[in-house]
């Protein structure tokens, strides 16, 4: 309607002061058709009609008021019981003789015509929004399908692992899923190792019990039973069973999922060993590190440290020293444990031998030669290293080192 009003202003010309001229036929076609529903009028400042469009020849319209110039006034009006949208605009026209005259341009449009346009616009708008909504939902579904596809690949690989076609998650996964797949692989590998450990334990247990059972069977069937021999073999079987059960329930290799305070574990062990070796007057000296953490099972740490410290207390002359160092490195955390004694020491040529199962330095000393081998197996199980310092000559010095990698 503003466009139509500006068109009328452009077509208007003043023939003489106070007399505005507009052609009967204007460029807007709806103004040239009778009862088109679109009408235009021009009034003077005193309310006298100067011009009306051809479409309004039979329309009775009385100007109710004079409006200020320069502002568009848009409202609704009822003429001949017909509802209209009305746009009015007043101007001051300066004639060529310098006089000024007031003119008011009024446009009327039947409300049902404009309402039809509004309804069409609403239909178009809501149809467009509905199509945009459908498009956005489709895009979201595609994005979710694309974003969740790596999880589908993980599920597919897990099914392959379950069926035995592969042993770990091997797909090319996004970097964001790397911690998840790494820990899943760790859990899968830990479970596989645990099953392997149970299988080996049963095998070792069966193999170890063959000899004692054969001896007992021979005594029973021989008629003359040596009770002392039978009892010794029964004790031997009990020791074997206890050892294999302990190994069967030992924890898995180190991870960043849980950690143990090293200080607390060592203090527990030293408190017990001080009572065991009280008669021998062994002095245990501990230099700890409050930040030291062992990322793994507490029982495994107690097993390793307990065997090493018990071995040191058994062989030392008087003193046992324990040093713990913890540090942060580029790949994660490093833990070093040194256990030293002032006993007879271990010959260099037997450093590797004593860490193997069943080997002992002194065959006359009570024991089965499995304590240090258990320590070595657990250390290697956690990816660590164990060594006997060849430069330490005042006794034996065992060094254990673990590197626990950080999950990025």
Automatic annotation (TrEMBL):
UniProt organism field: Pleionea litopenaei
EC number: 2.7.13.3
Transmembrane segments: 123-148
Keywords annotated in UniProt: ATP-binding, Kinase, Membrane, Nucleotide-binding, Phosphoprotein, Transferase, Transmembrane, Transmembrane helix
InterPro entries found in the cross-reference section: HATPase_C_sf (IPR036890), HATPase_dom (IPR003594), His_kinase_dom (IPR005467), HisK_dim/P_dom (IPR003661), HisK_dim/P_sf (IPR036097), Sig_transdc_His_kin-like_C (IPR004358), TCS_sensor_his_kinase (IPR050428)
Record lineage: Bacteria, Pseudomonadati, Pseudomonadota, Gammaproteobacteria, Oceanospirillales
Occurrences of domain Histidine kinase (ranges): 204-406
Catalytic activity: ATP + protein L-histidine = ADP + protein N-phospho-L-histidine
Single GO molecular function: phosphorelay sensor kinase activity
Protein name: histidine kinase
Location in or out of the cell: Membrane
Enzyme class: transferase
PANTHER family reported for this sequence: SENSOR HISTIDINE KINASE YKOH, SENSOR PROTEIN PHOQ
SMART domains (alphabetical): HATPase_c
A GO CC term assigned to this protein in UniProt: plasma membrane
Gene3D superfamilies: 1.10.287.130, Histidine kinase-like ATPase, C-terminal domain
């Amino acid at each position: 309607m503003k466009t139509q009003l500006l068109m009328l202003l452009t077509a208007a010309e003043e023939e003489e002061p106070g007399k505005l001229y507009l052609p009967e036929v204007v460029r807007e076609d709806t103004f040239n058709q009778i009862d088109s529903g679109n009408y235009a009028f021009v009034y003077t400042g005193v309310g006298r009609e100067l011009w009306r469009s051809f479409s309004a020849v039979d329309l009775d319209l009385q100007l109710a008021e004079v409006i200020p110039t320069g502002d568009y006034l848009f409202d609704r009006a009822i003429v001949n019981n017909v509802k209209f949208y009305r746009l009015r605009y007043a101007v001051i026209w300066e004639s060529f003789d310098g006089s000024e005259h007031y003119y008011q341009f009024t446009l009327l449009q039947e409300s049902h015509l404009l309402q039809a346009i509004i309804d069409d616009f609403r239909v178009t708008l809501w149809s467009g929004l509905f199509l945009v909504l459908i498009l956005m939902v489709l895009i979201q579904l595609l994005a979710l399908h694309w974003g969740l596809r790596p999880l589908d690949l993980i599920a597919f690989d897990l099914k392959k692992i379950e069926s035995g076609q592969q042993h770990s998650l091997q797909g090319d996964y996004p970097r964001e899923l790397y911690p998840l797949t790494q820990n899943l692989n760790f859990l899968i590998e830990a479970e596989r190792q645990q099953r392997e450990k149970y299988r080996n334990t049963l095998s070792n247990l069966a193999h170890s019990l063959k000899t004692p059972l054969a001896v007992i069977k021979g005594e029973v069937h021989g008629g003359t039973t040596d009770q002392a021999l039978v009892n010794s073999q029964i004790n031997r079987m009990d020791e074997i069973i206890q050892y294999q059960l302990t190994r069967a329930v030992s924890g898995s290799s180190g991870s960043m999922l849980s950690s143990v305070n090293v200080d607390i574990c060592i203090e527990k062990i030293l408190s017990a060993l001080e009572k065991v070796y009280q008669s021998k007057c062994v002095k245990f000296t501990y230099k700890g590190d409050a930040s030291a953490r062992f990322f793994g099972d507490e029982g495994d740490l107690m097993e390793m440290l307990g065997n090493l410290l018990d071995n040191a207390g058994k062989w030392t002359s008087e003193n046992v020293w324990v040093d713990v160092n913890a540090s942060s490195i580029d790949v994660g955390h490093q833990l070093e444990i040194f256990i030293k004694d002032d006993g007879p020491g271990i010959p260099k040529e037997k450093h590797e031998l004593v860490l193997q199962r069943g080997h002992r330095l002194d065959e006359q000393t009570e024991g089965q030669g499995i304590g240090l081998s258990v320590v070595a197996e657990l250390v290697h199980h956690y990816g660590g290293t164990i060594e006997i310092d060849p430069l330490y000559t005042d006794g034996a010095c065992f060094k254990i080192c673990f590197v626990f990698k950080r999950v990025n």
